[in-house]
Amino acid sequence: MSEKLVEIKDLEISFGEGSKKFVAVKNANFFINKGETFSLVGESGSGKTTIGRAIIGLNNTSKGDILFEGKKINGKKSRAQEAEVIRRIQMIFQDPAASLNERATVDYIISEGLYNFHLFKDEEERQEKVKKSLVKLDFWLNI
Fold first, then answer.
1. What is the tens place of the pLDDT at every residue in 15-72?
2. Residue 65 burial (CB < 10 Å; 0-12/13-18/19+)?
3. Domain ABC transporter, which positions (predicted)?
4. Which spans in 37-105 are helix H?
5. DSSP 3-state assignment of 71?
């Protein structure tokens, strides 16, 4: 049986309060298993991006749970938990030209996360981490 990576349970996301309250997502339920390719499909305005933004912590949730590797990641969390979510979950937006610079080198693209989160102590370590990532990618692509 596959292990759940992300699970959305009875999720509701609303904006505003009182008579101006707008429920953008109501009773969303799905899960994504580790290693699985997943697509969230729907009409424009149906809440796909809103759910994605909630998963990465940009949108607050009104009800329900967002679990990552079995741990709740929505609602109140410590700075350490928030940093872990930011480090482990990234969102790639629909417009690839806005998300990925086609003129950037592969080295730069892989290094971007290393730079953003200060995950190397010197240039030699950065290059080694890039090489290891490329080796892992080659292995994954050949499965």
1. 999 999 999 999 999 999 999 988 898 888 899 999 999 999 999 999 999 999 999 9
2. middle
3. 25-132
4. 48-55, 79-88, 96-99
5. strand
Tell me, rounded to whole angstroms, the distance of Cα 62 from its chain centroid.
19
Q: Are 8 and 29 in contact (CB under 8 A)?
A: yes
Residue 116 one-letter amino acid: N
- With 80 as the cut, is the pLDDT of residue 122 above it? yes
> Residue 115, exposed/middle/buried by CB under 10 A (0-12, 13-18, 19+)?
exposed
CATH number at 4-89? 3.40.50.300
Residues whose CB is less than 8 angstroms from the CB of residue 47 and which lie 6 or more positions away in sequence, other chains included: 13, 24, 25, 28
